[in-house]
Amino acid sequence: EVQLVESGGGLVQPGGSLRLSCAASGFTISNSWMHWVRQGPGKGLVWVSHIKGDDSATFYADSVKGRFTISRDNAKNTLSLQMNSLRVEDTALYFCVKESVGAFDIWGQGTMVTVSS
Amino acid sequence: QAGLTQSPSVSTGLRQTATLICTGDSNNVGNEGVAWLQQHQGHPPKLLSYRNNNRPSGVSERFSASRSGNTASLTITGLQPEDEADYYCSAWDSSLRAWVFGGGTKLTVL
Q1: d(CA B104, CA B102)
Q2: Are B23 and B5 in contact (CB under 8 A)?
Q3: Which residues contact A30 (CB under 8 A, 6 or more apart)?
Q4: What tens digit of pLDDT does each residue of B41-56 get?
Q5: Which residues contact A114 (CB under 8 A, 6 or more apart)?
Q6: How far apart are CA A48 and CA A102, in angstroms?
Q7: Is the pLDDT of residue B1 over 80?
């Protein structure tokens, strides 16, 4: 069964850092297109970042460019999101997502990030 | 980054048909494949349709999607109580080089 399990969320002060992880099972992330998508409390879905399966090129939303870094550890079959210089507006539930057929196919349950003083 | 446009809410009767609309432009909906997702309260989204009108295995035939120009639509026939959820459209924007979502439509089944 294909499954994604996020971890690493929590409460952090503005300006702080946090590293999210996503453990994948049932497939290999090394050749998969993987994304992070977030959802603020009571808000809609917002794409954050993705890493391509073929050449590992990375893409970021303007709102996180220069602050967040997506990466993957093929040996551990894990996707990560390093988040620096966090802002109050980064508060959200962060989903790890596997792209298939050109769409957001498989979703994890999400990990909550709260940025507050 | 600009997103796609969806009506905030739609209300339709039980066993009736609901049509949800998603509007974009030639850089996203009009050129790239549109996907539709369903999200029930407290749960992660679920893919309902991809590349404009394809349904993943396991998704009910009551859900069908289409695209005309810069507008995509999701039609749900024979509405059931469990169809009450938030529905999002998404597409790759080739100009922004970013994925964009609609703001979501909350479907209420009366």
Answers
A1: 5
A2: yes
A3: A53, A72, A74, A77
A4: 999 999 999 998 899 9
A5: A9, A10, A11, A12, A91
A6: 16
A7: no
Residues 32-71 of A with CB under 8 A from B: 35, 44-47, 50, 59, 61-63
Q: What's the sign of the alpha-carbon dihedral A110, A31, B30, B46?
A: negative
Enter the tokens of residue B34: 């549109």
Write out chain B residues lying below 8 Å of A59, CB-based: 97-98
For residue B90, what are the CA distances in angstroms to A56, B10, B30, B74? 22, 18, 12, 12
Find residues 84-103 of chain A whose CB sits inside 8 Å of chain B.
95, 101-103
DSSP, res A29:
G
Closest CA to A44 of B49, B104, B89, B39: B104
What is the Cα–Cα distance from A38 to B17, expressed in whole angstroms?
Answer: 30
What are the pLDDT digits (tens) for B75-101?
999 999 999 999 999 999 999 999 999
